[in-house]
Amino acid sequence: MKKLKSFNKLKILLLILPLFIIYKGTQTQAATTITTGSFALNVQNKKDPTDKAYAELKWDTVPDAVGYTLWQKEDGQVDFEQKSTNYEKPIKVLNIYPDIPNSNTLKTWMETNGYGMKLIEVTPVTMTAFNANPDQYLLDSNKEYVHDVLMFGSWNVNNYLDMNQKSADAVRKYLDTGRGALFGHDTISGSSGYYSGFGAPHPWFNKFAEDVGVTLVENNPQQSNFVSHGIGGASVKIKNNGYMMKYPHLLKEEITYTIPPTHTFGQLGKGKVWMEFVQPGLFWGPPFADARGTNNFYLVTNNNAGMIMTGHSEGKATPNEQQIIANTLFNLAQFTKDTYASDRSVEDKKAPKQATFSEASTSTVPNTIIDIAAEDEGTTYQWYVEASIKTGNQFSDTMEEKIVSGTKGFIHVIDEAPTTAITPTKDTNGLVVLTLDSPTPQIQFNGLTDGEKWLHIRAVDYSGNVGPIRHIQLKDLMETFRITESYQDETGTVLAPNTFTDIKKGSNYTKIAPTMLPNNWKILGNKTADQYQVGSISMIATIQKNEKVVFIYRKSTVSLHLRQVILSANEELVIPSEGYFNAIYKDLKLNVAGISSDNLNEAYQEIILAMEKGAPYQYQVQPIIPEYYQYEGYSVSNELAIHSPENRILGAYPTLDYTNEKDFWLTIYLKPSTRTLSPYSWDYQIEHLQ
Predict the structure, then answer these.
(1) Other C-beta atoms lying within 10 Å of the C-beta of residue 139
(2) Does some domain include residue 2?
(3) What superkingdom does the record give (predicted)?
(4) Half-sphere exposure (CA, 13 Å, Cβ side) for 440?
(5) Containing structural domain, residue 217
(6) Fewer CB atoms inside 10 A, N or C side of the chain?
(7) Res 517: pLDDT
């Protein structure tokens, strides 16, 4: 395995130098140079068409370099790790299988069955042939390495075949270039007694235990004091849902994967354990872990080398297992001759911040529109490139960049409660179900009726990270509030339609009560939910919510312009010179008099009438009809106008509603009755005085 370079010797100058990089897609800061190296490295946060964030890297060509290895570490991680540089590039795998023809299966799995996704080309060779002349298979005629990854296996106990010194030395030299290797079931194991009981042990394979990230332990079931460090099963699950699980097959964390029965034996996984056996499993057990590692691993890697438990089934592999092998081989291919790479192992692991809000320019109080956004935080990584040259390796600048997938949308609820929790749910593809499927959505609500409700919202980024919840009352989102103004008398009777004033949050409201004197209303004061103000001016300081202002009026005196007109006068009957009437207001009866004649243009007599507190503001006028006369209807108007008897209203006596009026002009019509005439009755003259 390649050794990490020493930063103390090779990188002394510390710079914070921004690179002016244009990023398309997700907003991010420019990459930063942490240390300068022998050649330049540029890093850029990008997103692919599926909105997956990745790092695009480009570096200078180094003269005489035979290839390059990419090293990367995540924020908070101490050591750099090798990463694949071959995304979407085809790779070549040399499968050293343990002689038995039925163990020569990798080419079929990757190419014939298609699980290599046309990205993995496999060349098989027997273990015996490889041990005899490893360079024949590792190098071309120019002494250049041919393959990107080696795979040893797959068969139970590797068909009892081990490397020899010649092949082990060749593989060590190969791995030190940064190229990859995957070791199958039972190739590396500390259970030498177990092997000796069934065949030769694997001391040469075991020399690569540290490379793949395992600790060797004795696991001999023939011993009387046997304590198993092995465990196994026929199903596995993802333990580390990182880059190894993403490409070329997207493996889902919530799924259990079926494999042929297999087990660990004589090794503890101490490197990066990607998958483990589902418990309760098969074989021995139980799960065991200490400082040396865990026995419950199915796949473990360490930089450019790894170990997988494929092989116990002797040539069998489920479709799930073939997908897992394809992903592992591809991601162990970490050496390139190109001067560019896409690092797909990076992941935005940090959730977005809390949602922020602003009122849209088209928002109104009845249709409040709120723009929503949330800043995605992202995860910071560092990279450098190692150039392999014959005279000694060189190292690039060490660059730092934040990988930000970007806010994808939101999950939210609007209800009456102030602290409703939101638990994310996922669809069948493992994606968080969004209620607002946009990075900058809008919500709409009626600011007049919904302001007391609560919004509960969490942002979700394209990596599936769900941000912290924010609870906020809808009225706190509004930048404009409405003051609804109503006009009532002292008993609450509505005198006029409501008006309104829209005003910015935090502003002061002042309004003078509209004058209603033409209708004889006098302003008394106004009231809100919090105060009563005497006089005509309403004032509310620092508006923070919708308000209601009630202007309160009292009705003043009104005028009745009254006359009586005789129609079809009879020469034998005296025409009254005055008319007498009862003006009925609530429980009060007033006797009033007006001019009477047969002249249709006769003048009106003005009568001043008082009003009590509270509706109805109505007077009914009933004529006192002289003997030998009968009632013939009336004409009425709210202004001085010609009253034509042809348009008079017949039937009931007139009721005059002064709620919105100050004056009425009223003509009462009488005409002689058909009764036999007699001398003029003085009862009429007397009656009006009673």
Answers:
(1) 15
(2) no
(3) Bacteria
(4) 4
(5) 91-333
(6) C
(7) 67
Split into its structural domains, the chain has a count of 5
Torsion of CA 324, 325, 331, 334, to 10 degrees: 170
CATH number at residue 199: 3.40.50
Beta strands in 567-625, from DSSP E residues, in sequence order: 578-585, 588-597, 605-609, 618-624
Q: Domain check: are 153 and 244 in the same one?
A: yes
Nearest one of 347, 569, 375 to 467, comparing CA atoms? 375
Residues 222, 233: Cα–Cα separation, whole Å: 22
- Tokens, residue 449: 């009726």
Place of tokens 């008006």: 499
Q: What one-letter code names the amino acid at 164?
A: N
Please check whether residue 448 lies inside any domain of the structure: yes
Tokens of residue 619, six digits:
């007077």
CATH assignment of the domain containing 495: 3.10.20
Q: What is the DSSP letter of 629?
A: E
Say how far apart CA 178 and CA 149 lie, in whole Å.
10
State which H helix or E strand residue 686 sits in: helix 683-687
Cis-peptide, bond into residue 221, ω within 30° of zero: no
CA-nearest of 271, 239, 326, 265 to 82 is: 271
The stretches in the chain having pLDDT less than 70 are: 1-29, 192-200, 219-229, 517, 675-690
Hunting for tokens 């030190």 — which residue is that?
176
253: its two tokens: 């964390």
Cα-Cα-Cα-Cα dihedral of 626, 629, 632, 633, to 10°? 0
Query: How many of the other CB atoms lie within 10 Å of CB of 628?
Result: 20
Place of tokens 């695009």: 56
Task: Please indicate, yes or no, whether residues 674 and 619 belong to a single structural domain of this protein.
Answer: yes
**Size (the chain), residues:** 690
| Domain co-membership, 105 together with 216 | yes
> Do 94 and 137 form a contact (C-beta atoms < 8 A)?
yes
- Give tens-digit pLDDT for 270-311: 999 999 999 877 777 788 889 999 999 999 999 999 999 999
For 357-378, the pLDDT digits (tens) are 999 999 999 999 999 999 999 9
Q: How far, in whole angstroms, is CA 603 from its chain's centroid? A: 77
CATH number of the domain bearing residue 610: 2.60.40
Instruction: Identify the residue whose tokens are 């490139």.
Output: 385
- Same structural domain, 141 and 268: yes
Q: Is residue 49 part of a domain?
A: yes
CA of residue 330 relative to chain centroid, distance = 34
Domain boundary among 532, 555, 578: 555
**What are residue 382's DSSP bridge partners?**
73, 400
